[in-house]
# Entry
Amino acid sequence: MQLIDQHTKAIMEGCKERARDVGLSFDDESLEYVVTNRDMLELSPKVMIPTMYDYWVHDVEVLQGKGKYELYPSNPFETVINTRPAISFYNDNNPDWLNVMIFYHVIGHIDFFQNNLYFKHTWDDDFAGQALADKRTIARLRSEKGRWVDYVIEFARSLDNQVDYHGVLADQHRPARNSLPARVDYYFDVFLQDEQQVRVNEYVQEIERYNKCVRENPQGGEDEFFQPILNQHPEFAAMFEKEGGGRRERGRDLLQFLIDHSDFLDRDENKWMKTILQIVRKTSLYFQPQIRTKIMNEGWASYWHETLFMRDDRIGGHEVDFARVNSAVTSMPRVGLNPYALGMRLFYFIEEAADKGRYSQQFLSLLDRDQRRKFDQGTGTGQDFIFAVRENLNDFLFVNNFIEQDFVTRNKLFVADKVLDEQRMVWQWYVKSRSADDYKAMVKEQLYHPPHITIDLDQTGNDALFLVHHFEGKPLVKEFIHNTLLGTEFLWGRKVMLETTEVKSIKKPDAQQPVLPGMGPIPDHEAEPEIEWQRVRYTMKDRKLSKGLV
# Structure
């Protein structure tokens, strides 16, 4: 691995100048390295951080990747790391014209990392340097504790999707906690939301009432605001005091809870394990936004590498070469999902719609198809609009807000399914739906969405750690429950209980399904099976798992 030469660095700096001219924003400093194609494989298993701590599963994946490369050589284009300064890696055999395209793509990623608000907690970190320090720490611990270090890493990694990423993000965006009195903070953050579970309109009304009281009476406005609350809810004062004057632990970050409250980890001989948990938790929090913005991030980078490359006077004569490479990266598959292609096309679609004023109430109220097709107010605000989208949204909001029927129809998108041809005993694919709602649902189904599990602070104590899975329509994967609870019991030091929801019975629809000649029945996507759910409780005690109904 070595830094790119001065000739290639000059190409990169030229790309930066052109990118800034169109509004992209990023730090001046960046580091670019060249590596061999085979070495590029080692960056992926270590989550694109070359200094990441070594872990035996990663080593297995590297060996598997090298074996596959011997059989099926591939040419990964780049890897970019969100750190300060940004670090990127390139193949050592790229021609200059290809580097121009790849540099624009990388600059798009860096702009996204440094401006999307879901990355805000990473903006001031040199994560590559921190990862190197973590790697050295774990190497030292491994020399002292042996393979127990890898077991603790494995146990911690089974829980690394149970970190309070949104809580960390909220702390970055909300004012400092001491800017509001603790009683006000507790009332709005805990009492209204968790205890009373009020509706959104009631919550907003209370905010408006508080602002009015404080605005009209700066000295006694808070007491004036709370007077009707104390009359209507006399238990509020006692609840506020019981929760430590508003300082309440939420129970949303399982790794942090184990670090803070496990008596087993607090023993002198086990305190080194806390260091492992802190490293795994910190790493998970750092990569949470990348997992949650894959479509936007790749779409944004692809949008800009295509837009800027075609304007660049340094690529004359290589337009056909670019078209060949670009189509391989951004082609829309008939079955499956390509985040590069979907994200890029959505940004183009949003830009055009905003240019024509189609996010106005006037357009949204139109029902006539011809009127909608011809609508064009010529606002010219499309690029400003997509910069705002880049700054404020994640994949779920991006997909949920902007995949619409016009987009699906224009790009000839559909939801595909397969049916067994019983005569030939092969699967045959067919178009199940061309509806935007169905396509949107398919995309959202593939987005990252870890199970919502919290710690029941009232039932957790010296006897057990009590976890609650908040059911959102998807049951937990059963084969993972045993090993995850086994590792959690080890880290907690006592029994662990998990309350969750599982399928009790499935009733198939009675309707007859149509049959095509030579094929089996075509599933009717409207006739969904009726599922009956039941609440169950798993208990892991002394490394033995039991289950019972709640």
Observations:
- The longest helix spans residues 271-292.
- Residues 453-549 form one domain.
- Confidence is low (pLDDT under 50) at residues 44-53, 55-76.
- Residues 314 and 388 are 30 Å apart (CA to CA).
